[in-house]
Amino acid sequence: MQETDEVPQLTAQHRELLDQMLDKWSLQIMEALCDQPLRFNELRRAIPVVTQKSLTAALRRLERNGMVERVVTQTRPVAVEYRISQIGRTLQGLIDALLLWTTDTLPEVEQARARFDDLQREEVRSR
After folding, report:
1. Which of 44, 8, 11 is nearest to 25 (CA)?
2. Contact between residue 70 and residue 63 where contact means Cβ atoms under 8 Å apart
3. Which contacts (CB < 8 Å, 24+ apart) does range 68-77 have?
């Protein structure tokens, strides 16, 4: 791959992948799997607010995009384990950076939200 200082343009393909990686559950699933491989019900316990249907759909998207591997163990009964893939592991630093950025900027964001909400209430009252 040739290095360039040029910033890539946001295409439909980029948007689709980012939408799937930054959806409601994917970051939480990736964060949980970065620590250790987990079975489905262990993931449900790690993210208690996710429904079975939503977790299944998110895991399938992550597996399709190569971020998560689904491993079937040859035990009795057969068990399925999910683990972060090599590609998925490359996101760990980015996930950590996003969490750190969110933690650092959340107070400012909350202040901006409060100012915006106050202005909206004032506009509604003045009508």
Report:
1. 44
2. yes
3. 68/29, 68/30, 68/33, 71/37
Distance, CA of 124 to CA of 80 (rounded, Å): 54
The tens digit of pLDDT for each residue in 34-80 reads: 889 999 999 999 999 999 999 999 999 999 999 999 999 888 888 89
12-126: which CATH architecture? Orthogonal Bundle (1.10)
29: nearest Cα among 71, 88, 78: 88
66 within 8 A of 90, measured Cβ to Cβ: no
Distances (CA, A) of 67 to 7, 88, 103: 24, 4, 25
Q: Could you report how far apart the first and last alpha carbons of the chain are, in Å?
A: 58
pLDDT tens per residue, range 10-21: 899 989 998 888
Nearest to 86 by CA among 73, 67, 71: 67
Give yes or no for a contact between 97 and 56, defined as CB atoms under 8 angstroms apart.
Answer: no
